[in-house]
Design a protein that fits this description.
The protein has helices spanning 6-15, 35-44, 63-79, 96-103, 123-132, 148-162, 176-185, 209-219; strands spanning 2-3, 20-22, 49-52, 83-86, 89-90, 93-94, 111-113, 136-141, 167-171, 190-192. By secondary structure, it is α/β, with parallel strands linked by helices. The strands form 2 sheets. Strands 1-2-3-4-7-8-9-10 form an 8-stranded parallel β-sheet. Strands 5-6 form a two-stranded antiparallel sheet. Helix 1 crosses helix 8 (209-219), helix 3 (63-79) packs parallel to helix 4 (96-103) and helix 5 (123-132) runs parallel beside helix 6 (148-162).
Length: 220
């Protein structure tokens, strides 16, 4: 689940979260957090940490931003995080060259390809591309537009295409109804939550251990 403070991490851990994604600027979809924050969260909880590395609120990037992200990726690898969260798109396709340049600065770290995936024109073919890229072990996707049932069916198609080569995580607009359906049908095995774990369902609100606990109950 998404955290952007030590207090968030503490509440997420108390509520039973399995792992954390550390970000800042959550309203922008998450940008690279300060290294000091990542280290403070790591000192607070033993939960695995994946850290977003992203310099703008969109999904395209440029040479200057890539250089900054390479530096961040290297520092995060040295800090011992569990993995990175990356994702770039250009012209409806995954920008694998930008992805590779950032990944090579953190050799050995696994990568979640984030919701840039939802901006791709042919997501099934993109799964094949990402599976071949090496070290990408997860794709984070909302499952697209529509009701939870429609999204669930789309997620099931993604999982089938991945064929065990990588994990598909449902994330983005996953509230209690969607989580309950995803868990009941088994269309995905992993779910990523943000605002549903926060007081008032507010993306900037504090994480609530009670809400995390409730989501864990719905997940079964």
């Amino acid at each position: 689940m998404i955290v952007q403070s030590v207090a968030d991490a503490r509440e997420a851990s108390r509520g039973g979260a399995d792992r954390l994604e550390v970000v800042r600027a959550i309203r922008d979809g998450g940008l690279t957090p300060p290294l000091a924050l990542v280290k403070a969260i790591a000192a607070e909880t033993p939960l695995p940490l994946r850290v977003i590395v992203r310099e703008n609120a969109g999904y395209e990037t440029n040479a200057r931003e890539v250089a900054a992200m390479r530096e961040s990726a290297s520092e995060l690898a040295a800090a011992g995080v569990d993995g990175l969260v990356l994702g770039f798109a250009r012209g409806g396709r995954a920008a694998l060259d930008d992805l590779a340049r950032v990944m090579e600065a953190a050799p050995g770290l696994p990568v979640t390809f984030h919701r840039a995936f939802d901006r791709l024109d042919d997501q099934l073919d993109a799964i094949d591309d990402l599976a071949r890229a090496g070290r990408i072990d997860r794709i984070l996707t909302s499952g697209g537009d529509g009701t939870p049932a429609v999204r669930c069916e789309r997620l099931r198609q993604y999982v089938a295409r991945a064929g065990g080569r990588l994990e598909v995580i449902a994330g983005g607009g996953v509230g209690e109804d969607a989580l309950s359906l995803f868990a009941r049908t088994g269309c995905v095995r992993e779910v990523h939550v943000g605002r549903a774990a926060r007081d008032g369902n507010d993306p900037e609100g504090p994480v609530s251990a009670a809400r995390v606990r409730r989501l864990r109950e719905l997940a079964g």
